[in-house]
Amino acid sequence: MALFQLPGEEDFEVLLAENAFVSDVQLAIESALAEAHMTQASLARHLGISEARVSQMLSGNGKNLQARTIARVAHALGLRVLIDLVAEDSGWITFETDDSAEAHPFSDDFSEWIAGAYQLDSIDVNDNWSAPEAVPADGERLVAA
Amino acid sequence: MRAAPRPPDGYEYLSRGRGTHDIVIRTKASKELEKKATIEQRAGLSDLVTRYIKDGPAALPPKKFNGNEGWFPSDKAPRKVRLEAFKPWQLRAYGFCREFNGRPTFFVTGIDPSKKQNRADQEILRAAGKEAASLNEILEACT
After folding, report:
1. Of A60, B18, B24, B88, most Cβ neighbours within 10 A?
2. What pTM was estimated for this model as a whole?
3. pLDDT tens, A36-84?
4. For residues B55 and B90, is the Cβ–Cβ distance under 8 A?
5. Do A4 and B15 touch (CB under 8 A)?
């Protein structure tokens, strides 16, 4: 059982997953703001909303953190949103610079890393690679930071 | 080998040795959470406390953890504690962090499950701060 979950509360884990996702998004936005040296007031101006609304977005249960809003925040920061659906307890959301969408070959480091993640001896990720069906049972992170 | 000290009377371990931080909660606060907090409030708190256990306060969204709710018993007292708060939606869990059994440990001293998000209930905050200061005295006396 999760912390503070009471017996018979089957919905608890669903709510926990929602909260964890909202926290991940809020953390990602806060980190991106700090990295860009952008204040909440400045972000509010870029988005054309009040500073209070930005503050509300970054606190509480994130009811107004809609996908479109997140995309607008990323755009205001010159970033794009990268989402990966991964095994539970291993995922997180990241913002990437807009130009990172440009195609580039995978590095050897990445090849080694992905082979390790799938517990394979070696793998050539540039050669029409597709993921094996089995994913690591131990919830190892499948996405490079 | 001597067994590690247990938390003082009225307190219990919520999590120990699972990450960078341990959590000890006042039994009264734990019961209050069970009786008064909604499932949504507890799920929000669960997310934040789990992150804290794993990686400490830096792993929390800044607006969901207030690292300075005030000094107790006062900012001029020789042995003062800085009250902190987990702030999931419509809930506050007050406490402070100090070393216990050789590990950074967050002691939850009070819960405010009222549905007021913007302003803390000052009476509950003060009670949690007073309890934190008194617990800190007990822990200091044990070291």
Report:
1. B88
2. 0.80
3. 999 999 999 999 999 999 999 999 888 788 999 999 999 999 999 998 8
4. no
5. no
Architecture of domain A12-99: Orthogonal Bundle (1.10)
Residues contacting B75, CB < 8 A, separation 6+? none
- Omega before B7 within 30 of 0, i.e. cis: no
Nearest residue in chain A measured CA to CA from B47: A20
From residue B140, how far is each of A13, B103, B109, B135, B137 by CA, in Å?
38, 15, 16, 9, 5
- Listed by number, the residues of chain B in 88-127 with a beta carbon closer than 8 Å to a beta carbon of chain A are 88-90, 117
CB contact under 8 A, B64 and A55: no
Q: Provide the residue ranges of all domains of chain A, joining segments of one domain with +.
A: 12-99, 103-145
The CATH number of domain B11-142, selected from 3.30.2310.20, 3.90.700.10, 3.10.20.30, 3.40.50.300: 3.30.2310.20
Instruction: Convert the pLDDT of each residue in B38-76 to its tens digit.
Output: 999 999 999 999 999 999 999 999 999 999 999 999 999
Q: Helix or strand or coil: residue B48?
A: helix
- In angstroms, what CA-CA distances link B103 with A14, B93, B97? 31, 20, 10
Q: What is the DSSP letter of A126?
A: T
